[in-house]
Write a structure and sequence with these properties.
About 25% of the residues are buried. The chain contains 7 helices and no strands. The chain is elongated.
């Protein structure tokens, strides 16, 4: 069952990344970078919010979680550069992305734990309020979501480079504007003989 869900989700995200690449010219690795940046920004923003709004005894715990988030984000950026080199070399000779199979265990774990963390946080809030444990479970569930997107987008096959629709639209717009603002030809008197 998990294999079917993983394959379905990978196909949908690959289809989205192909559409996005045709539209903007940015491939699936660019989307994986965006997921990594969202992971980093969300983690630091949430922990900074809790550091500023809670009692001072928890500052050490939230600061430690911020350092862990930073370390994971840096390793994700480094790993993405490595994966991109491998996949682009493989696609040049006609092979598919090897991380479709190699990253299956990590993608499956994110498929299992992201909903568990999200449902646990919602159930805890509905039962009677917010505790420190629920806050960390919620943060962890959201971080797992971005982490999972990173692994899904880095497992997609990029399309070959081509001119994007946005670039075509831009060129058409620039040519249209040039046509509007082009100088009007002045009539030149014909020489009389």
């Amino acid at each position: 069952m998990l294999i079917e869900i993983d394959v379905w989700l990978l196909r949908k995200l690959e289809k989205f990344s192909h559409w996005f690449q045709k539209l903007t010219g940015k491939n699936c690795f660019w989307l994986a970078r965006v997921a990594t940046a969202c992971y980093f920004c969300f983690g630091l923003a949430v922990t900074a919010f809790y550091i500023l709004s809670k009692e001072t005894s928890m500052i050490i715990l939230y600061s430690l979680s911020s350092l862990i988030i930073l370390a994971v984000a840096i390793s994700m950026f480094k790993m993405l550069k490595f994966k991109e080199e491998i996949v682009l070399d493989a696609s040049n000779i006609g092979l598919v992305n090897p991380f479709k199979i190699l990253d299956y265990p990590i993608r499956t774990l994110t498929l299992i734990f992201t909903p568990i963390c999200s449902f646990r946080e919602i159930a805890g809030i509905l039962d009677g309020g917010v505790s420190i444990i629920l806050v960390f479970i919620g943060i962890f569930g959201n971080l797992l979501f971005w982490y999972g997107l990173f692994y899904y987008f880095s497992a997609c096959d990029p399309l070959p480079p081509a001119k994007s629709k946005v670039k075509e639209w831009k060129e058409k717009f620039v040519n249209a504007v040039k046509g509007v603002f082009a100088p009007v030809p002045r009539p030149v008197p014909a020489p009389c003989e």
